[in-house]
Amino acid sequence: MYDVDLNSDLGESFGPYKIGADEAMLDLITSANVACGFHGGDASVMHQTAASALKRGIDVGAHPGFNDLWGFGRRKITGDSPQAIGDMIAYQIAAMQGMARAAGHRVSHVKLHGALATQAFEDRALSEALTWAMRALDPDLVLVCTPHNETERAARRAGIRVACEVFADRLYGDNGLTLPRSEPGAVIHDPVAAAAQALRMVREQAIRTVGGKVVAMPVHTICVHGDNPQGVAIAQAVRDALLAEGVRLRPISQLDFQ
User: Fold this and answer.
1) Around Cβ 151, how many Cβ atoms within 10 Å?
2) CATH annotation of 3-254
3) Catalytic activity, per the record (predicted)?
4) Which member of 89, 146, 179, 252 lies 3.0 to 4.6 Å from 133 by CB, making a disulfide possible if both were Cys?
């Protein structure tokens, strides 16, 4: 029997703009990755998300991204030094730590968002900027990321614990990473298909790519994207499938991993 976390990227609304159905998602997941104001979110949303998670016994993490509200943090941005990016990440984590503390909660983990995560997977210096920020603020923070890349390797070198993440609602390329959203079928909208994929990944402790490869990896946490229009239905289907299989759902802070 496996202990698995079910997470979602939340808190991405800001000002008058509402993104996702956060309260409904918080009833289904065990950990929330909260936007820190750069690609989405604002101070009030961060505080409310942390407070709502605390009431439900759910972990909260910082979900930093590029300073790119216009592109929702999914556009590639280059030119900044690794230290500048590290400072940008530290700024966002610290903001989330402050708002969580104001709500009586604490930040347990960090998960990079969008293009920042994708670039870090292939960039050692950028990944080391991330691990520097995490260790500078709280060496007990857990990194949530896809394994077998520069980000995971940087975290291991820095002595940071890694929660290996898979995605219920995304397809994978043969490089072991999720397919770009621009490719047809890259995002799964069918709750039944997403639940079947999540359950298979837990059973096999591996992902399957569109090219037929099987890539072994421990499955510590499963993500359902909060901005997916079918996100709540997918999270419900995934949760139901895992519980029916006997999988125990636990927040990241309660998992036992290396």
Assistant:
1) 27
2) 3.20.20.370
3) 5-oxo-L-proline + ATP + 2 H2O = L-glutamate + ADP + phosphate + H(+)
4) 89
